[in-house]
Amino acid sequence: MFRHLALGVVLTLAWAPVAWAGVIKSQTTGTSKVTLSSTENYIVAGNNDITVTITDTKGKPKKATVSSLSFNMPAMGTMAAMKSTAELKPGKNPGEYTGKVNVGMTGSWKVVIAYKDERGNHRANMQIVAR
Predict the structure, then answer these.
(1) What is the pLDDT of residues 26-66, one digit of tens each?
(2) N or C end: fewer C-beta atoms under 10 angstroms in the chain?
(3) Cβ within 8 Å of residue 89, ≥6 positions away
(4) pLDDT tens, 68-126?
(5) pLDDT, tens digit, for every residue of 36-45?
């Protein structure tokens, strides 16, 4: 019986239309943990659905407002610097913001997430690689 139950759970999970967000990068800044996630589990050159989650350092959602999110690539040789921004809106859960961003090319990008919580204005800086 247990084998049939386990098989049923595995098949249900395999066929369930769930959009789980995979963590790209997290950074702790002061009393907050800022996490960037994507439904693809990574950032791609082109359009990306993203989620920013702000929690306390123990993982409890925080009351915070994300004011901006940008992906920045510095100038290299004759290539000009590149910048992509995302417009985020409150997500389904507290401390969660969702949106879309179009990343111009593969390579290393600096992600800057500006947010405000009960302690003031903060910035989380993360280095990611777009595929």
Answers:
(1) 999 889 999 999 988 899 999 999 999 999 999 999 999 99
(2) N
(3) 97, 98, 99
(4) 999 999 999 999 999 999 989 999 999 999 999 999 999 999 999 999 998 999 999 99
(5) 999 888 999 9
Produce one character per residue of 61-76: b if its CB has 16 or more CB atoms within 10 Å, e if not: ebebebeebebebeee
Q: How is residue 100 written in tokens?
A: 């879309």
Residue with tokens 């940008």: 70
Task: Return all residues near 66 (Cβ < 8 A) that are at least 6 apart.
Answer: 52, 54, 88, 97, 113, 114, 115
* Homologous superfamily of the 19-130 domain (CATH): Domain of unknown function DUF4426 (2.60.40.3340)
DSSP 56-75: ETTS-B---EEEEEEEEE--
Where b means 16+ CB within 10 Å and e means fewer, 92-122 reads eeebbbbbebebeeeeebebbbebebeeeeb
3-state secondary structure of 9: helix
